Amino acid sequence: MIRAVIIDDERNSRDIISLMLNKYCPEIEAVASAANCKEGIEQIRKHKPQLVFLDLEMPDGTGFDVLAGAYDASFEAIFVTAFEKRFLHTIRLSEVELILKPIDKESLLQAVNAVTARILRPRRHERYDVLLSNFGKPAA
User: Fold this and answer.
1) Nearest residue to 71 (alpha-carbon basis) of 53, 89, 45
2) Which of 48, 107, 108, 112 is the one with CA 20 to 30 A from 16?
3) Residue 21 is inside which H or E element, if any?
4) 75 and 49 in contact (C-beta within 8 Å)?
5) Residue 67 CB-density burial (10 A; 0-12 exposed, 13-18 middle, 19+ buried)
6) Distance from C-alpha of 13 to C-alpha of 19, rounded to nearest angstrom
7) Cβ-contact 135, 90 below 8 angstroms
8) pTM for this one?
9) For residues 107 and 100, what is the distance between their CA atoms, to the nearest angstrom?
Protein backbone atom coordinates (compact mmCIF):
# COMPACT_ATOMS: atom_id res chain seq x y z
CA MET A 1 0.00 0.00 0.00
CA ILE A 2 1.31 3.44 -0.97
CA ARG A 3 0.64 6.17 1.61
CA ALA A 4 -0.45 9.54 0.21
CA VAL A 5 -1.04 13.04 1.54
CA ILE A 6 -3.33 15.45 -0.33
CA ILE A 7 -2.48 19.16 -0.07
CA ASP A 8 -4.95 21.58 -1.65
CA ASP A 9 -6.61 24.73 -0.35
CA GLU A 10 -9.94 23.70 -1.93
CA ARG A 11 -11.82 21.18 0.19
CA ASN A 12 -13.74 19.99 -2.86
CA SER A 13 -10.48 19.14 -4.66
CA ARG A 14 -9.15 17.23 -1.64
CA ASP A 15 -12.40 15.28 -1.43
CA ILE A 16 -12.46 14.50 -5.16
CA ILE A 17 -8.87 13.25 -5.16
CA SER A 18 -9.58 11.08 -2.12
CA LEU A 19 -12.78 9.64 -3.61
CA MET A 20 -11.12 8.95 -6.97
CA LEU A 21 -8.17 7.25 -5.27
CA ASN A 22 -10.57 5.03 -3.31
CA LYS A 23 -12.47 4.12 -6.46
CA TYR A 24 -9.72 3.78 -9.08
CA CYS A 25 -6.42 3.34 -7.23
CA PRO A 26 -6.77 0.73 -4.47
CA GLU A 27 -2.98 0.61 -4.07
CA ILE A 28 -3.01 4.23 -2.80
CA GLU A 29 -4.20 5.12 0.71
CA ALA A 30 -4.83 8.79 1.52
CA VAL A 31 -3.53 8.98 5.10
CA ALA A 32 -3.90 12.75 5.57
CA SER A 33 -4.82 16.01 3.90
CA ALA A 34 -3.97 19.66 4.38
CA ALA A 35 -5.47 22.98 3.27
CA ASN A 36 -2.29 25.06 3.06
CA CYS A 37 1.49 24.92 2.72
CA LYS A 38 2.30 25.00 6.43
CA GLU A 39 -0.14 22.20 7.28
CA GLY A 40 1.06 20.27 4.24
CA ILE A 41 4.67 20.29 5.38
CA GLU A 42 3.54 19.22 8.86
CA GLN A 43 1.49 16.32 7.43
CA ILE A 44 4.40 15.20 5.25
CA ARG A 45 6.75 15.19 8.24
CA LYS A 46 4.18 13.41 10.43
CA HIS A 47 3.01 10.71 8.00
CA LYS A 48 6.11 10.26 5.82
CA PRO A 49 4.05 9.52 2.70
CA GLN A 50 5.43 7.94 -0.43
CA LEU A 51 3.18 10.15 -2.58
CA VAL A 52 1.94 13.73 -2.22
CA PHE A 53 -0.82 15.31 -4.32
CA LEU A 54 0.24 18.94 -4.28
CA ASP A 55 -1.77 21.98 -5.35
CA LEU A 56 0.39 24.63 -6.96
CA GLU A 57 -1.45 27.75 -5.76
CA MET A 58 -2.51 28.18 -2.14
CA PRO A 59 -3.15 31.30 -0.04
CA ASP A 60 0.06 30.94 1.98
CA GLY A 61 2.37 29.96 -0.89
CA THR A 62 2.84 27.45 -3.68
CA GLY A 63 3.37 23.75 -4.01
CA PHE A 64 7.00 24.61 -4.72
CA ASP A 65 7.21 26.10 -1.21
CA VAL A 66 5.94 22.79 0.20
CA LEU A 67 8.41 20.85 -1.92
CA ALA A 68 11.28 23.06 -0.74
CA GLY A 69 10.08 22.99 2.89
CA ALA A 70 9.79 19.20 2.99
CA TYR A 71 12.78 18.55 0.76
CA ASP A 72 14.47 16.21 3.23
CA ALA A 73 11.41 13.92 3.11
CA SER A 74 11.41 11.14 0.54
CA PHE A 75 8.25 11.16 -1.58
CA GLU A 76 6.98 11.43 -5.13
CA ALA A 77 4.70 14.35 -6.01
CA ILE A 78 1.80 14.78 -8.38
CA PHE A 79 1.12 18.47 -8.88
CA VAL A 80 -2.50 19.58 -9.21
CA THR A 81 -3.48 22.94 -10.66
CA ALA A 82 -6.11 24.88 -12.54
CA PHE A 83 -3.42 27.31 -13.73
CA GLU A 84 -1.85 25.43 -16.62
CA LYS A 85 -0.20 28.32 -18.42
CA ARG A 86 1.67 29.74 -15.46
CA PHE A 87 3.40 26.53 -14.39
CA LEU A 88 3.18 24.03 -17.24
CA HIS A 89 6.46 24.87 -18.96
CA THR A 90 8.49 24.81 -15.72
CA ILE A 91 6.95 21.51 -14.66
CA ARG A 92 7.26 19.76 -18.01
CA LEU A 93 10.98 20.57 -18.15
CA SER A 94 11.40 18.88 -14.76
CA GLU A 95 9.84 15.52 -15.71
CA VAL A 96 7.29 15.52 -12.87
CA GLU A 97 3.61 14.70 -12.98
CA LEU A 98 0.86 17.30 -13.38
CA ILE A 99 -2.94 16.94 -13.23
CA LEU A 100 -5.12 19.80 -14.39
CA LYS A 101 -8.36 20.68 -12.59
CA PRO A 102 -11.05 19.57 -12.97
CA ILE A 103 -9.46 16.19 -12.36
CA ASP A 104 -10.54 13.34 -14.60
CA LYS A 105 -10.07 9.60 -14.20
CA GLU A 106 -7.62 9.21 -17.10
CA SER A 107 -5.29 11.99 -15.90
CA LEU A 108 -5.32 10.62 -12.36
CA LEU A 109 -4.54 7.07 -13.48
CA GLN A 110 -1.78 8.18 -15.84
CA ALA A 111 -0.07 10.24 -13.11
CA VAL A 112 -0.51 7.56 -10.43
CA ASN A 113 0.90 4.86 -12.74
CA ALA A 114 3.95 7.00 -13.51
CA VAL A 115 4.74 7.77 -9.86
CA THR A 116 3.96 4.25 -8.69
CA ALA A 117 6.65 2.97 -11.04
CA ARG A 118 9.10 5.48 -9.54
CA ILE A 119 8.11 4.58 -5.97
CA LEU A 120 8.77 0.92 -6.63
CA ARG A 121 12.34 1.56 -7.82
CA PRO A 122 15.13 3.41 -6.00
CA ARG A 123 14.35 7.07 -5.35
CA ARG A 124 15.96 9.78 -7.40
CA HIS A 125 15.23 13.38 -6.53
CA GLU A 126 17.23 15.06 -9.27
CA ARG A 127 14.03 16.05 -11.10
CA TYR A 128 12.89 17.99 -8.01
CA ASP A 129 16.25 19.77 -7.91
CA VAL A 130 15.63 20.75 -11.54
CA LEU A 131 12.05 21.81 -10.79
CA LEU A 132 13.05 24.01 -7.85
CA SER A 133 15.91 25.46 -9.85
CA ASN A 134 13.59 26.20 -12.78
CA PHE A 135 11.13 27.91 -10.45
CA GLY A 136 13.86 29.91 -8.73
CA LYS A 137 13.75 28.23 -5.31
CA PRO A 138 16.88 26.61 -3.90
CA ALA A 139 16.59 23.11 -2.47
CA ALA A 140 16.80 23.15 1.31
Assistant:
1) 45
2) 48
3) helix 11-24
4) yes
5) buried
6) 10
7) yes
8) 0.78
9) 8
SS3 2: strand
- Centre a 10 Å sphere on the Cβ of residue 72 and count the other Cβ atoms it contains: 9
Q: How many CA atoms lie within 13 A of 12 on its CB side?
A: 3
3 state SS of 72: coil
- Give SS3 for 52: strand
Averages of pLDDT over each 10 residues, the chain, 140 residues: 96 97 97 98 97 93 91 86 64 70 93 87 64 65
Is the bond preceding 26 in cis, omega lying within 30 degrees of 0? no
Report the DSSP beta bridge partners of residue 32.
5
Tally DSSP H helices, then E strands, for the chain.
6, 7
Quick count: other Cβ atoms within 10 Å of Cβ 14? 20
Q: At what angle do helices 11-24 and 105-119 cross, to 10 degrees?
A: 70
Neighbours of 5 (CB within 10 A): 28
- How many whole angstroms separate alpha carbon 82 and alpha carbon 24? 22
Q: 23 phi and psi, to 5 degrees? A: -80, -45
